[in-house]
Each structure stands twice: as structure tokens, then as C-alpha cells.
């Protein structure tokens, strides 16, 4: 559904609702009201699912794990759904959910989903993680999986990013900490330990602005606009011009205008002064350019209005300042969102809406947020991660309704 159609449906639904309110005021009776509701919705061409979506709470952030999704609503509530084999939904079970379920009653400001675990920051700055923990990625000092959120230490945190088997987070003092699997030095603290079950500080810098965790590498941007990467560079995903490992953070080039970075499975993308750059493995076209793997950043097209980028697995998505959404790379499950399952080696427009503002989150499924707070997801749905009550994959965006 494009933005124009969405607006028409909203207007028609509001008219139907006003008619019902008038009927109630005239005390026509509950049976008549029920009939009017059904008739009004039918006349407006609004399905039950669309009615629920229109009435759903607005969403402010979303994250896509391997087969689960989490989102924060405007009131700070945290909602998760999809695969739950490791307890990554945080609901105290290991049962999959095909519709959103609230995680406790706390107020959250940030959340990120890894392959089988999830971490989030609450309004008081406390950090919580849960889910699969076989490599210590939860960070609670154990390798025991957790089906409900567990607080990590007592520090205050600004943001967190969960990878397949390691996690990194930035504290409010600008220091960067990582924990979990370190087989390829992805924690940035050297080759040892092999597994860290509690957070370890990465170098001594206190000006980290953001961090992103890939499969075997990690990248971060500092407040001075410099970009740094470390871990394994099997296909050039560190952007350092070489293959092999980097055990501690190394600066990528000399630019000081990086505003964001995202790490996929074995590729990385970042935004620099509105231009989009990607590097690393390119077997599915996830770099957005028709070339082989790249060991240094390569510019994607000539557009200078990119504002946000997200990547996980072998798929990338990005939003431009005009509100247009574009995806590219692996598309076997329809995660590019163009109505096909054809891999794309160049950014491909997702519909014609110009109101995309949040996300995007890309994995084997993708999600993004529109200006009205509506959440839309598409792609793989084998674990119910699209949140529509089914396990049927979708190759175009469909709106997800959080319970009101």
C-alpha cells in the first residue's frame, strides 16, 4: 500500500468511525452499531488487518534478527515476535510468536536483535540482554541462555548492537565495550579471550558515537567522524585494503565525515556526507555495485542524499532524505521488497512511498518505519518474524500492527 492509498483509507475509516459515534449518541443499540461497523468498514474497503494496523500504536525503532523482530512503540514499550528457540523474544518461553508480544512493562529507548539473542537499553540507561548465550553474547558472566531480560552490570549505556555471537555497546561516557565470541578478534581486544562472558573495554577512546556488529567483524564511528573496523576480513569487510585479521580498531581511510556504519555478514556499508559507500563480499550484489569483492570502500552511485543505512546477512537497505527506501543484495526470501526473489546488485526502490523515516533493518527479512509511525516488514517469515499471524513470506512490505 503506498502513502496516498494509506491516507485515503485513513480518511474513509475516520468517516466511518464518526458515523458510528453519531449512531451511539442516538442510542440505536449495540446490535445496530455492530452492523454499522461491519458495513462501514466494508464500504471503505478496509480489511480487519488494516483496521488493526490503523489503530496500532506508533513505532519509533525496529530491529531485525535472523528470524525475529523487535520494535519500540512511542510509549517506550518493547515488543518482539518471530523465532524464539533461544528465548530471544524475552517472554519467558522458547515458543515462536507470529504476532507482536510485549516484553515486560519497562520503558525502553533502544533495542537490537542478533541471530538468536536480543539486547536493549531502558530509559534509565540500564542495559539488558536475553536469548541464546552459548558464546557468552548475553554478557551476564555465563553461557546459559536466558528467556527473560537480564541486566548487564550497573553502568549507564547509550546504545547497543547485537551480532550473531557477539555484542558491543557504547556507554554514556563514550567508552566502547564488547563481549561474546572472539574467535576472529571481533571484540577488538586482541586474540584473547576466545570467549568473553562479560563486557570488555575496547581501547581507551571515549568518543565512540556508534557501533555495528557483523558475523566476524565490527565497525564503529567516533564523534570526530572517523570510521574504525576490526575482526576478520575474509572478503575485505574491514575496508582496510587487505585480507586477514585486525585484532584492534584500525581507522578506515582518512575521512572525518562518516555519520553511520552498518556491518552485514561479510560486507559493510556506511554514509559519508550523504554519499553511500560499501565494501567486502559481493556475491549477491550486497555492495550495490556490479563488481567483485572490495577491500576498500566503493561509492554506490552518485546520490548525495542518503540518510540511513542498515545491513545484516547479505542484504542492505537505505533511506534517502526524500523519504524513499531502497534495498539491494540477496533476495531469496523477498527481503529486497521489490515483489521478486531476484538478487539485486544495485539499489532497488521499494514501492513509491516517500515517507520512510525509521530503520531500515535488513536481514533475511526487512523492516522499516514510515513517518506516521507505521511499521512495515517483508521477506522471510518462517518463524513468524513478519508479525502478521502467518508464516508466509512476503516480497513486498506489509504493515505490522502492535496490539493497542
Automatic annotation (TrEMBL):
<dbReference type="Pfam" id="PF13540">
    <property type="entry name" value="RCC1_2"/>
</dbReference>
<dbReference type="GO" id="GO:0005085">
    <property type="term" value="F:guanyl-nucleotide exchange factor activity"/>
</dbReference>
<dbReference type="Pfam" id="PF00415">
    <property type="entry name" value="RCC1"/>
</dbReference>
<dbReference type="GO" id="GO:0005737">
    <property type="term" value="C:cytoplasm"/>
</dbReference>
<feature type="signal peptide">
    <location>
        <begin position="1"/>
        <end position="41"/>
    </location>
</feature>
<protein>
    <submittedName>
        <fullName>Alpha-tubulin suppressor</fullName>
    </submittedName>
</protein>
<dbReference type="InterPro" id="IPR051553">
    <property type="entry name" value="Ran_GTPase-activating"/>
</dbReference>
<dbReference type="InterPro" id="IPR009091">
    <property type="entry name" value="RCC1/BLIP-II"/>
</dbReference>
<keyword id="KW-0732">Signal</keyword>
<dbReference type="InterPro" id="IPR000408">
    <property type="entry name" value="Reg_chr_condens"/>
</dbReference>
Amino acid at each position: 500500500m503506498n502513502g496516498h492509498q494509506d491516507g485515503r483509507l485513513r480518511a474513509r475509516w475516520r468517516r466511518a468511525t464518526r458515523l458510528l459515534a453519531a449512531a451511539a449518541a442516538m442510542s440505536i443499540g449495540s446490535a445496530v452499531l455492530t452492523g454499522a461497523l461491519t458495513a462501514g468498514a466494508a464500504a471503505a474497503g478496509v480489511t480487519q488487518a488494516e483496521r488493526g494496523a490503523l489503530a496500532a500504536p506508533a513505532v519509533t525503532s525496529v530491529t531485525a534478527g535472523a528470524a525475529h523482530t523487535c520494535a519500540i512503540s512511542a510509549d517506550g514499550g518493547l515488543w518482539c515476535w518471530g523465532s524464539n528457540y533461544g528465548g530471544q523474544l524475552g517472554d519467558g518461553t522458547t515458543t515462536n510468536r507470529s504476532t507482536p508480544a510485549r516484553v515486560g512493562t519497562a520503558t525502553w529507548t533502544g533495542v537490537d536483535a542478533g541471530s538468536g539473542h536480543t539486547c536493549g537499553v531502558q530509559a534509565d540507561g540500564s542495559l539488558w540482554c536475553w536469548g541464546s548465550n552459548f558464546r557468552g553474547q548475553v554478557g551476564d558472566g555465563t553461557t546459559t541462555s536466558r528467556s527473560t531480560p537480564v541486566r548487564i552490570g550497573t553502568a549507564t549505556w547509550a546504545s547497543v548492537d547485537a551480532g550473531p555471537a557477539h555484542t558491543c555497546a557504547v556507554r554514556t561516557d563514550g567508552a566502547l565495550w564488547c563481549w561474546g565470541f572472539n574467535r576472529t578478534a571481533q571484540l577488538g581486544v586482541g586474540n584473547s579471550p576466545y570467549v568473553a562472558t562479560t563486557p570488555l573495554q575496547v581501547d581507551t577512546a571515549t568518543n565512540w558515537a556508534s557501533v555495528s556488529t557483523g558475523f566476524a567483524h565490527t565497525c564503529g564511528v567516533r564523534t570526530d567522524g572517523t570510521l574504525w573496523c576490526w575482526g576478520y576480513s575474509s572478503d575485505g569487510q574491514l575496508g582496510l585494503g587487505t585480507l586477514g585479521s585486525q585484532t584492534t580498531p584500525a581507522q578506515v581511510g582518512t575521512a572525518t565525515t562518516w555519520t553511520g556504519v552498518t556491518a552485514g555478514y561479510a560486507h559493510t556499508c556506511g554514509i559519508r556526507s550523504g554519499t553511500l559507500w560499501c565494501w567486502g563480499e559481493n556475491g549477491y550484489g550486497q555492495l550495490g555495485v556490479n563488481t567483485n569483492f572490495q577491500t576498500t570502500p566503493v561509492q554506490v552511485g552518485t546520490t548525495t542524499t542518503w540518510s540511513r543505512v542498515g545491513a545484516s546477512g547479505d542484504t542492505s537497505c537505505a533511506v534517502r532524505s526524500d523519504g524513499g527506501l531502497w534495498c539491494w543484495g540477496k533476495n531469496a526470501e523477498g527481503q529486497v521488497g521489490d515483489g521478486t526473489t531476484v538478487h539485486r546488485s544495485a539499489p532497488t526502490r521499494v514501492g513509491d512511498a516517500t515517507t520512510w523515516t525509521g530503520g531500515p533493518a535488513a536481514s533475511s527479512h526487512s523492516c522499516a518505519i514510515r513517518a506516521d509511525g507505521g511499521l512495515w516488514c517483508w521477506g522471510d517469515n518462517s518463524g513468524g518474524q513478519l508479525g502478521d499471524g502467518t508464516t508466509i513470506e512476503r516480497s513486498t512490505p506489509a504493515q505490522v500492527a502492535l496490539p493497542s
